[in-house]
Amino acid sequence: MSTNGEAPEHHLRLGPTSTTLEDFTDSYILFRETTRRYREAYEQLEAQFETLNIKLEETNQELRKSLEEKDRVSNYLNNILESMTGGVIVVDLGGAVTLFNQAAEQILGRSQSEALGRPYEEVMGAAPGRQDSALYTLDTGTSLINRVKEMPRPDGRPLPLGFSTSVVRDESGKVLGALEVFNDLTEVKRLEAEVQRVRTLAALGEMAATVAHEIRNPLGGIATFAALLGRGMEADDPRRRLVNKITEGVGRLNRIVSSLLTYTRPLRLNTHEVNLVELVEESVAFFEIDLERSRGNVKVTRDYVPGPLACRVDTEQFQQVILNLLQNATQAMPEGGTLSVAVAPDPGHVMLCIGDTGIGMSPEVQAKLFTPFFTTKEDGTGLGLVTCRKIVEAHGGRIRVESAPGTGTRFYVYLPQ
Question: Alpha-carbon distance 128 to 180, whole Å?
Answer without folding.
Answer: 14
